[in-house]
Design brief:
Order of helices and strands: EEEHEEEEHEHEHEHEHEHEHHEHE
Number of strands: 15
Strand content: 25-35%
Largest sheet: 7 strands, mixed
Structural class: alpha/beta
Shape: globular
Number of helices: 10
Distance between the termini: 18 Å
């Protein structure tokens, strides 16, 4: 089978489609013929040597796929700890769920990592309930757009930020009640002008140091700030007196490093609590672009330059010719 190998040379990505044996499923795993795989910033971090796969997991890039189970022919999505950017992947059965019938199979690859990340952090870690106020940073990313939609499904009010003015419309389409251009607007002032001071119950933050002080400023007493990445730095200055005064909870959260059993339990909840909303049209996927694997370097560069709105996918059914 072909798989995607990526290296970085002189600040540029170099991609190659290499050959390797089709993986043999171990006990409790199924073999999926990949239709499409989703690109994530975790892939960029792994290429840079900062985010290796958990022990025992595939060294091949890729954390989510859609495809067909062999030999049953079931159309599925799958959450992975690695191995997705390939023609076949062996997946723990508990991390597979049906691809929604209302979404084409390639586009369904935009669901697993984005929506499971949103689900884990808004529902499990954030305990968002109807009427809550949620702030989502990097709202035009795959995770961000999923989190906006999921927040609305949960009955919350949602504010979202982006640093690209042209992406504000995507936040609104996803259902954001407040959309903030963080490059030219102060998100604290914008939220306080609409919702009042100390109004946000849950913050989903992949930015980190650059936004954490503002997160704490808008947070309600007893609120939760959930940090899922550090795109804006990893060493913030935090007003601990304000943290104490608000009885705030600062939570660090990753999905990839959780063990298979924990992730299987999360997927089982997701199947029951969220997946049906795709078939009713209450949730959808936001696909920015689809590339054949032979043009993966363009996809990677598009993500690194933050030009995407929503998910970038690799279509493994396409010819490898550029």
């Amino acid at each position: 089978m072909r798989y995607l190998h990526v290296s970085e040379q002189d600040g540029r990505y170099v991609t190659e489609l290499r050959e390797v044996d089709v993986p043999v499923p171990r006990a409790g795993e199924v073999l999926v013929r990949v239709a499409a795989s989703g690109l994530n910033r975790a892939d960029l971090s792994q290429i840079a040597g900062r985010y290796p796969p958990p022990p025992g997991e595939s060294e091949i890039l890729g954390l989510e796929v859609s495809g067909i189970v062999e030999p049953t022919g079931d159309h599925v999505c799958a959450l992975l700890a690695g191995g997705g950017h390939a023609e076949y992947v062996a997946v723990p059965a508990g991390l597979v769920f049906p691809a929604p019938a209302t979404i084409d199979l390639v586009s369904a690859a935009a669901i697993p990592e984005a929506y499971l990340t949103a689900f884990v952090n808004l529902v499990v870690e954030g305990q968002v309930s109807p009427g809550a106020a949620v702030l989502v940073h990097a709202g035009a990313s795959g995770v961000g757009l999923a989190a906006i939609q999921l927040g609305k499904l949960l009955g919350a009010r949602v504010a979202a930020t982006t640093r690209t003015r042209a992406k504000l419309a995507a936040l609104a389409r996803a259902g954001a009640d407040i959309a903030v251009d963080a490059a030219s607007q102060n998100f604290v002032a914008e939220i306080e002008s609409r919702w009042g001071a100390n109004s946000v119950g849950v913050v989903l933050d992949p930015v980190g140091a650059a936004t954490l002080p503002g997160d704490l400023a808008v947070l309600a007493t007893g609120g939760r700030i959930i940090v899922i990445a550090t795109m804006g730095g990893a060493r913030p200055e935090v007003d601990l007196a304000l943290l104490l005064k608000k009885r705030a909870r600062l939570i660090g959260s990753t999905l990839r490093s959780r063990d298979r059993e924990e992730k299987a339990a999360l997927v089982a909840r997701f199947r029951q609590e969220v997946l049906p909303a795709f078939d009713t049209g209450m949730l959808g996927v936001a696909v920015d672009s689809v590339f054949p694997p032979a043009r993966a370097v363009e996809a990677l560069q598009r993500m690194r330059e933050n030009r995407n709105t929503g998910k970038i996918l690799l279509d493994w059914r396409q010819d490898t010719a550029p």
